[in-house]
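Fold Annotation — chain and its backbone

Encoding — discrete vocabulary of local shapes
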Amino acid sequence: MMSQSVAAGSARGHAMNARQNKRANAEDIGIDERFISDMVEQFYASIRADELLGPIFAKRVADWPAHLLRMKQFWRSVLHNSGEFSGNPMAKHIAIPGLQEAHFSQWLELFYTNLRAMDTNPQAVSLIGERARMIAESLFTGIAINRDGIDGASQGRSLPHV
């Protein structure tokens, strides 16, 4: 019978290998740390300039360098499985009054436009775009459920795809 410490070590080793593989696979299609940094910087520049989303962010983000650093950690966690992001994005978004499907659709359209403009590997565009949509749908559905109860569970299905 395997001891608990050996089993825990084996699980940690498996998790570390999975993390390394995910990062290597992402980097193989051009999604390295520099790409993620550039993606976040360019995307949030477009967010800040956007008529619909810019004012929402301007009300809530006082320290843009800190926010961008946090978003880079978030996207490295999503795309490289780095494990460096901790937080509760759902609670942050639920706390913003008045968010509707139009806000998430615009967020995704800006995200996709930025991603395509980076002229990267089509596999990278697809992977990152799918992750962004999954995140937007999850956040919008969570907000809708919080606001409307179980009836909100069907929200977000019509958000745009990359």
